């Protein structure tokens, strides 16, 4: 084992996954929305295993088995954290799915893999994630006092369940992580128009008033490869109502995308020879 100062248990706690299918030939790393956890994607494992797709669901700090770890404070810090695992899991071709905040994280991870000359994902799936090229499209709210922050989140996303609001102890556990995620989203560096070299599929909810299809279309400016936009039934959190459509799109794209060459080969031109 490489000397990174971390145990295998510490490394594997970063992603939840069910037993890998014996026929797995590709891997999907999934990254949740603000306030979310690995639980959002763990059920996908059963749906995708017949297609040979091994699903790894990212677990943010301060949640689940990582409850006692300090919260991530930036998307870059999140990327550095998960990179410690992804660098070691280059045995299969892989793709990234990120929803909302998770999409920015997937984008940052791809840029970092390419910069290090490692194998990048074969595909990027962006669910309800505002493209960085648009800048920060909503007012900052992470700095607000608790009451004001909760009101702002509920008005924008309907994102805090009533059951949590009614239980002070649950709210005490939930709120710091949600606030940290919003701060990471708001402080993400959107100034340069950065591009990745893998295909991007953007998924937009037909009733999403926050990040509509026209905005999602702008992800095409962030890749030098193919771009596709899919509009699915639902609002910003369409993962439940359009789960079958999301998984169908993932299967279609992952099973029809060739394995990626290392980024340094693509930059040098050797991947085409």
Characterize the structure shown.
By secondary structure, this protein is of the alpha/beta class. The protein has a single domain (24-137, 174-272), classed as Rossmann fold. 34% of the residues lie in helices and 14% in strands. The chain is built from 10 helices and 7 strands. The protein has helices at residues 8-12, 44-48, 75-86, 101-115, 146-157, 162-165, 168-186, 213-216, 243-254, 263-268; strands spanning 15-16, 26-31, 53-58, 94-99, 123-127, 200-205, 227-232. Helix 2 (44-48) links the parallel strand 2 and strand 3 (53-58). Helix 3 (75-86) crosses helix 4. The longest helix has 19 residues, at 168-186.
Outline of the structure:
By secondary structure, this protein is α/β, with parallel strands linked by helices. It has one domain (24-137, 174-272): Alpha/Beta hydrolase fold, catalytic domain (Rossmann fold, 3-Layer(aba) Sandwich).
Number of helices: 10
**Strand residue content:** 5-15%
Structure class: alpha/beta
Find the CATH topology: Rossmann fold
Low-confidence runs (pLDDT<50, min 5 residues)? 261-273
CATH class: Alpha Beta
Q: What kind of sheet is the major sheet?
A: 7 strands, mixed
**Residue share in helix:** 25-40%
- Shape category: globular
Mean pLDDT: 89
**CATH A-level architecture:** 3-Layer(aba) Sandwich
Number of strands: 7
Strands of the largest sheet, in order across it?
A: 1-3-2-4-5-6-7
Q: What would you give as the CATH superfamily?
A: Alpha/Beta hydrolase fold, catalytic domain
Give me the Rg, rounded.
Answer: 18 Å
Count of individual domains:
1
SSE sequence, one letter per element: HEEHEHEHEHHHEHEHH
């Amino acid at each position: 084992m490489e000397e990174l100062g971390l145990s295998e248990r510490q490394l594997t706690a970063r992603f939840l996954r069910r037993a890998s299918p014996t026929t797995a030939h590709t891997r999907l790393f999934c990254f949740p929305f603000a306030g979310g956890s690995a639980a959002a994607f763990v059920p996908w494992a059963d749906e995708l295993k017949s297609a040979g797709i091994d699903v790894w669901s990212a677990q943010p700090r301060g949640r689940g088995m990582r409850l006692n770890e300090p919260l991530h404070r930036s998307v870059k810090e999140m990327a550095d954290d998960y990179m410690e695992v992804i660098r070691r899991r280059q045995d299969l071709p892989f793709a990234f799915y990120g929803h909302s905040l998770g999409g920015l994280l997937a984008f940052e991870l791809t840029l970092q893999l390419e910069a290090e000359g490692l194998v990048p994902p074969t595909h990027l799936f962006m669910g309800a994630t505002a493209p960085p090229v648009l800048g920060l499209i909503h007012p900052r709210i992470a700095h607000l006092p608790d009451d004001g922050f909760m009101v702002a989140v509920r008005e924008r996303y309907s994102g805090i369940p009533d059951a949590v609001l009614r239980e002070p102890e649950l709210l005490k556990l939930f709120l710091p992580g949600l606030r940290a995620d919003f701060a990471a989203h708001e402080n993400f560096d959107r100034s340069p128009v950065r591009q990745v070299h893998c295909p991007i599929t953007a998924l937009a909810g037909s009733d999403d008033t926050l990040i509509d299809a026209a905005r999602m279309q702008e992800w095409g400016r962030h890749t030098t490869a193919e771009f596709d936009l899919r509009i699915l039934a639902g609002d910003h959190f369409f993962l439940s109502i359009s789960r079958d459509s999301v998984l169908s799109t993932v299967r279609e794209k992952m099973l029809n995308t060739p394995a990626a060459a290392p980024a340094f080969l693509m930059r040098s031109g050797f991947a085409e020879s």
